[in-house]
Amino acid sequence: MRRLNRINTLKILLPVILISGILSCKKDVCSTTVAATPPPVTTTHDTTKNTVSNLNALPINDYSTSGIYKGILCGRHSGNFELLVANGNNITEAWVSYNNIKDTLFTQDLLGWQPGSPVYAMFENTSGTGIALTVTILQDNSLNITINVKAKDLSDNTDTSISTVALKELSSLVVHTYEGTYTNSDSNSTNEITPAGKFNFAIRETQLTGIMYKNTTMIPAYLSGNNGAGTWQTDSTKGNFLFGIESAYMTGSFSSGKNVVIGTYQTQQTL
Questions:
Q1: Which residues are registered as beta bridge partners of 153?
Q2: What is the pTM of this model?
Q3: Which of 75, 89, 150, 199 could covalently link to 182 via disulfide, CB atoms 3.0 to 4.6 Å apart?
Q4: Same domain assignment for residues 205 and 131
Q5: Of 133, 158, 173, which marks where a domain is finished?
Q6: Between these two residues, 43 and 66, which has the higher pLDDT value?
Q7: Contact 86, 95 (CB under 8 A)
Q8: Which residues of 24-53 are buried (b: 16+ CB within 10 A; e: fewer)?
Q9: What is the pLDDT of residues 80-124, one digit of tens each?
Q10: Phi/psi at 33 (nearest 5 deg)?
């Protein structure tokens, strides 16, 4: 009889134990589910910079040859590049896009180079094909930085006239590149600008540098502007052009040397 009573007692207690265990487990699960979610991982990169390197220019490099540079290429095709020169680390390389082909370029010319020193280097990919950049970066006694870039297509011997311009990015001023085309409606204007071609430039807030490039003669007209207005100039002629506030697409007009509007351009931001 006592054994029977023990069995009956266990039958009564067992469901209670199981229910208690289930409730206890449920409580643990709920507490895990409602636990605070860790904050999202963030970086200091400003996505409006539209960079390839995913880095910001550092204030310490604003008046140094080290840092970030961006520019455009204009030849048989259009392109852009970003150059990273020891911007807070030992990495010095370039990323280039030309004729819709992207590539990473390296240099062996800066071994033992000291940050802030003049830069004389050739950048190319590991296979020795595609675009190669020959870069010179200097700083004068007033701490002004100048960059000169020459480009060559190692894979296309016929594309021998690739023109380039570039600007240094500052910690407070981002450089963007634009690529597009121009059309010229003036049948009496110089053959160097008629009738259509490429219109590419780099802009840093209000400062603009770029190239108008006729598709057939491959003669560049260099652009230089500030605060919405600028000039274009070839070896034998020159004129003016207007540009607006930066946006994803930038359009404007250009004039002859007599300030008569002779054409328009349409560009799109690429870096």
A1: 131
A2: 0.79
A3: 199
A4: no
A5: 173
A6: 66
A7: no
A8: eeeeeeeeeeeeeeeeeeeeeeeeebebbb
A9: 999 999 988 878 999 999 999 999 999 999 988 998 899 999 999
A10: -65, -40
